[in-house]
Design brief:
- By secondary structure, the chain is of the alpha/beta class.
- The chain has 14 helices and nine strands.
- It has one domain: Alpha-Beta Barrel (TIM Barrel), CATH 3.20.20.
- The strands form two sheets. Strands 1, 2, 3, 4, 5 and 6 form a six-stranded parallel beta sheet that branches.
- It is globular.
Amino acid sequence: MMKNLRITLAAISVFALVLLLPKQLFSQNHTGADLIKTADKIHKKVLTIDTHNDSALRLNNPDARPGVKIQVTFPFMKEGGLDAAFFAIYIKQGKRDSVSLLAANSYTKAQLQKFKDYTLSYKGTAIALNTKDLLKNKRQGIVSVVQAIENGYALKKDISEVEVFYKMGVRAITLCHNNNNDICDASMDTLTEHGGLSDFGAQIVKEMNRLGMLIDLSHASTATLYDVLEVSNLPVIASHSGVYNIKNHNRNLKDDEIKAIAAKGGLIQVATGGFFLSDKPKELVTVKDIADHIDYVVRLVGIKHVGIGTDFDGGGGVVGLEDASKMKNITIELLSRGYTRKELKLFWGGNLIRLMKIHFL
């Protein structure tokens, strides 16, 4: 009897120890070749989405930075097993007089149309307007482009412009960039102008809710973030942000901000720019640092509230993830840390699909 009891207690102790072991230890018996093979299988089956890059302007204007390689191209996406990406038209914050606002609005529309035309002319690539398009394109082996705008400055001071852009195919808007605009205060601006979201900004949020457009809080100040969460009746995303507690940077999210976004059903999409990830020299920042930020968000709010937003061609990229052709390296690193296929399905696209469905997309 005592012998059986000792055996039972020993078994329970081993089981308890296994539960307490870090995930990394479970994958130590797998070789690099095993991880690569598993990553390949996952990327073939799972919808993979990057929620932010600035490559559209580079592809629209290939001579803008001669000699600098574009980080996201459709062939790179295919090679890296990336099925879909949000291609943002970035508009630099400028003056807010009527002439400047009109110029910003016109520029954004022209660049959106130019990239749409480029996409439609490219075989095996299509504009995705909703989850149905994304899933259908995945099944057919077609690369999906989701159109986005980075900086609500493009809206002028006209609420009706939200619907105009929506009808052009835009499905997400980053409310601001590094400086305050008429919608809200920005995280990198040294001045507090609105104390968060302006009255006009609150109208923008409500209109985006009405249309089902995704509200992006990357670049927003802390006060703006909380104001948006109070006004919005739909979940929001931070399309390309990092963890403040790992790297002290105004663009990164503090624990309470991450929790607040997740509590409303939103997503934190981890950025890949070395300056968001670590204080180490650029040449020492790797995919492991990206995974550290992902791990942190998962421990804090769970796997259902995290994804990836590379910020390629806008400062993104580290050693081992120099461009979109290397996207599987993220999966390989997460597999090495013990992430399951189910968790990776959520991380790569399942979470965003769930959120888009809430938005009737």
